[in-house]
Write a structure and sequence with these properties.
The complex is a heterodimer of chains A (322) and B (368). Chain A is an all-alpha fold and 322 residues long. Chain A has a single domain, classed as ABC transporter involved in vitamin B12 uptake, BtuC. In chain A, 74% of the residues lie in helices and 1% in strands. Chain A has a two-stranded antiparallel sheet. In chain A, helix 3 runs parallel beside helix 5, helix 6 packs across helix 10 and helix 7 packs across helix 8. Chain B is of the alpha/beta class and 368 residues long. Chain B has 2 domains: 142 residues, 3-Layer(aba) Sandwich (Rossmann fold); 134 residues, Rossmann fold. Chain B has 11 helices and 12 strands. In chain B, helix 7 packs across helix 8 and helix 10 runs parallel beside helix 11. The longest helix of chain B has 22 residues. The radius of gyration of chain B is 23 Å and the shape is globular. Chains A and B meet through helix 2, helix 6, helix 10 and helix 12 of A and helix 3 and helix 4 of B.
């Protein structure tokens, strides 16, 4: 098993690559409905705006792979942002701030992991509780207001700047995707994640330290929330207790959609990227084509339903094939 | 047999429910009062006098903070009407209530190659990337309803190294707050104790409260302890519980002030549902739900209203001047009319408050 990827070879070509076709159709359709859709500036903006959500989705992948659920992703993001903005206001050295934010996110993930494994509380309830607690802490830290003083210039440049018309944050997200893809497919930890997600009992009997894997998954999730917080703070230039909490469902939609491409039935990084692009381009196309404001909400809802349904169908099919 | 019994039970239940409905009488105070809808005194248009020819065929992007809020969408609808007249291509990019979406909407507007971006109730501090993108693309980006420009104190975000909108159009929130305090003083028939609920983070709220609190000091009213704080996320059940708990423990409270009508509506209904009828709830904005509750004689008694349609027209006026390279009108708010709406000056049912003046005609004369 060393270095071998876990494959599902029973999927048809359509199941593996059909989503690429859908993506192409979406691009063609909206290029026809709006002359501003198919432009370098528009695609550049889309990618930059998806960098934050992509980081959250990467974190969400670890959680869903081990068959848990984390409702605190958005709250961790918000808490890390508020913490970072507060530290900036207090004059903490610029280089330390993103580090502290990421460490704080990881610590929140660790807390989630400990609550789920050591206390035996369902991750759904445990992470929701942690999330609500973090929401209160964020409100207390921010005083209910907006923190926007002394946000490090480096963070702003990294979050908003571009090279070759592509944001620095986008290149960074690509790097993170490559790293996560490698971890999931070529490391023992990645195999253990899938094993625990497939069956905790079997993984335990196989000698895998299930609780340790779960805790690390939650920490990874928190880690990526911290990174997302750094990017979002740089992009917006401010933080408050109301920011970022709405990104949870879109992030999970994208992770569920990943099961519909490349390795059907299995959460995978290339599928996640494809899902992210599909959602982003679809939503952008709807808005830029002049559809009424409700159209965007309807699209998000439909995507969420479809992603969960497709995920369930393909997961079951993959399990039967094994 | 089972089916017959089930059907009989169903019929009995239906009949009982219908009968109960017939027997229930709404308390007098919840029946629609035959309140007088008054035609307010005609007022003179106090907007700019200098003409500003409206350009034709431009692309106007609207970015409301949240399209489901009437305070955001009414100005946008007014701008769409204006756009029909001058053959503008007007498109709305919904901010969906969160700064990350608002930021993204501005960037979508930039990608759409708008000639101008008009935002409503967006905080410039939270959408820096969007403003930067608009500036880099050479697209003017302006604001309405923020309270960050004349007649309100002007922000100097540039001094903090931040980017700002080209201008903001809004009512004089400080004067509006003073008017609210005066109304409370004139209409107090109890203890005169006021509790102010504040939602920090918005300049318009901050300036309104400044005016309110400063004026209360000049009146016979007394403030209950310190300001009570809540956040936007707490609006609804949580805020309702907070207010009910407060007035229960402070039975002498006469006035409860909330900075938004949606919050005031929710609180007023909650107070009615628990049988608290001796507290007066005051709001800001003048939306239809709040006016309806005032009309019904509930705990909601008044709202500081300003005309959001006028806000839309005034914002367009300043925008036209900006696009023409003309000097902007002063004050930026163009003397946006406001009033305190109570049971004595209610607008027609189903309508928001509007001043008795043909400002639409006046503006078209300036632009044609």
């Amino acid at each position: 098993m060393n270095g071998r990827k876990i494959r599902n070879g029973n999927s048809s070509f359509l199941e593996k690559y059909g989503m690429i076709g859908i993506l192409i159709l979406i691009v063609m359709f909206f290029s026809f409905t709006s002359k501003n859709f198919f432009s370098v500036r528009n695609f550049s903006n889309i990618l930059i705006s998806q960098a934050v959500m992509g980081c959250l989705a990467l974190g969400g992948m670890f959680i869903l792979i081990v068959n848990e659920f984390d409702l605190s992703l958005g709250y961790i993001l918000c808490f890390s942002m508020v913490l970072g903005a507060l530290l900036a206001e207090k004059g903490v050295p610029s280089l330390l701030i993103p580090v502290i934010m990421v460490v704080a996110g990881s610590a929140c993930g660790l807390l989630n992991g400990l609550i789920t494994t050591r206390l035996g509380i369902s991750s759904f309830i445990g992470t929701l509780s942690v999330g609500l607690m973090l929401s209160g802490i964020s409100q207390a830290l921010s005083g209910g207001g907006i923190l926007n003083t002394n946000i490090p210039a480096g963070m702003i440049t990294f979050a908003r700047g571009k090279i070759f018309q592509v944001g620095y944050c986008v290149w960074f997200l690509v790097l993170l995707c490559v790293i996560v893809w490698y971890i999931l497919n070529f490391t023992r930890f990645g195999r253990h994640l899938y094993a625990v997600g497939s069956s905790k009992r079997t993984a335990l009997f196989a000698g895998i330290k299930v609780q340790k894997v779960q805790i690390l998954a939650f920490m990874a999730s928190g880690f990526f929330c911290g990174i997302a917080a750094v990017l979002l703070l740089g992009q917006l230039g401010a933080a408050s207790s109301a920011y970022g909490t709405s990104l949870l469902l879109p992030a999970y939609s994208v992770v569920f959609l990943s099961k519909a491409a490349f390795i059907p039935g299995k959460i995978n990084v290339p599928g996640m990227i494809l899902g992210m692009l599909l959602c982003a381009l679809g939503e952008n196309g709807i808005e830029i084509s002049g559809v009424s404001t409700w159209g965007s909400y309807a699209f998000q809802g439909i995507i969420l339903i479809l992603s969960i349904w497709i995920s369930a169908v393909l997961t079951e099919r993959a399990a039967r094939a094994r | 047999m089972k089916r017959v019994v089930s059907l009989a039970l169903l019929l009995l239940l239906t009949g009982t429910t219908a009968g109960c409905s017939a027997l229930i009488e709404l308390p007098d105070e919840l029946e629609e009062n035959d309140q007088t809808t008054t035609v307010s005194e005609e007022v003179t248009f106090e907007g700019p006098a200098e003409k500003a020819k409206a350009p034709r065929g431009i692309k106007v992007a609207l970015v409301p903070a949240q399209a489901s809020l009437s305070g955001c969408i009414v100005p946008c609808e007014a701008i769409e009407e204006i756009g029909d007249r001058y053959e503008w291509d007007v498109q709305t990019f919904d901010g969906k209530g969160t700064p990350d979406e608002q930021n993204r909407s501005i960037m979508n507007a930039v990608a759409w190659e708008a000639d101008v971006i008009i935002t409503v109730s967006l905080d410039a501090r939270s959408v820096q990337q969007g403003i930067q993108a608009a500036n880099d693309a050479g697209i003017p980006i302006v604001s309405g309803s923020n309270g960050t420009d004349d007649p309100n104190p002007q922000l100097n975000l540039e001094e903090e190294g931040l980017l700002d909108f080209a201008f903001d159009v809004g009512p004089d929130y400080h004067a509006l707050g003073e008017a609210m305090a005066e109304w409370m003083d004139e209409n107090s028939d109890g203890s005169g104790e006021v509790v102010v609920y504040s939602c920090p983070g918005s300049y318009s709220v901050e300036y309104f409260e400044e005016g309110l609190l400063e004026k209360i000091e000049d009146t016979g009213l007394t403030l209950d302890e310190e300001l009570q704080y809540f956040t936007f996320e707490q609006m609804g059940d949580e805020l309702n519980r907070m207010v009910i708990g407060y007035v229960t423990s402070h039975p002498d409270t006469e006035f409860v002030f909330l900075p938004f009508d949606p919050a005031a509506v929710s609180v007023a209904e909650a107070l009615e549902s628990v049988g608290i009828h001796d507290v007066k709830v005051c709001g800001v904005l003048g939306n239809e739900e709040m006016i309806s509750l005032i009309r019904q004689g509930t705990a909601a008694v008044c709202t500081a209203a300003y005309d959001n349609v006028y806000l839309g027209y005034a914002t367009v006026d300043q925008t036209i001047r900006l696009l023409n390279g003309q000097e902007l009108a002063s004050p930026r708010g163009e003397n946006l009319p406001y009033t305190i709406v109570d049971s004595s000056n209610l607008p027609e049912e189903g309508e928001a408050w509007a001043p008795n003046m043909d400002y639409i005609g006046a503006y078209y004369e300036l632009w044609d």
